[in-house]
# Entry
Amino acid sequence: MRRDWRVVHQVAAWCLGYPDGDLIAKLPLLRSALDEQPSSEPVRLLRGFVDTLAKQDPHALQHVYVELFDLRRHQTLHLSYWRDGDTRRRGESLAGFKARLREGSAKGDWLVDTGGELPDHLPMVLEYAALADPAGGRELLIENRSALELIRLALTERGSAYADVLAAVCATLPGPSAKDRREALAMARAEPPQESVGIDLPFPTSPATMMGAR
# Structure
């Protein structure tokens, strides 16, 4: 019987959102939700990350978040970038994400509100998997497993605690995580395009409803 990962996906969506006052205020709620879940590796990783956030200065957290995810493409949370980069093909991928989210949302009461974000933004996809269409959202995450692993590896390379959030998400999906970038690329279901592609960029050398969208 497959474990229900909806709480894990929802908490991960929150954790990957911008750490504004709303998110900081809800950290005890996230911790409580995780404490109610059966023991597992994803729950352990997210619990540790939530505890780390709770100990940090909010302004410092916001600076780190912007530096990691807004100013650098190397850790972008936009999933289609890792396969399509800035190529023309990415427009088709984004349209596909949007159609999937709308189709799944039509099954329930969850309304897709991008909040200014592109539809492939990972916190949004995770919230979709948690609230709108768990089966369809899980499949969307599996289809983009290569991107998830590449983000995880990039964050690990930088020594970022956010790597634990990606590790938690990956641990909810079938099969082991990639040991390195080569294994992560091998998970991709399509050949990378021949233009300037996000997955070909080098890693830096220096060490969501409920989504925290800005």
Observations:
- Residues 46 and 145 are 19 Å apart (CA to CA).
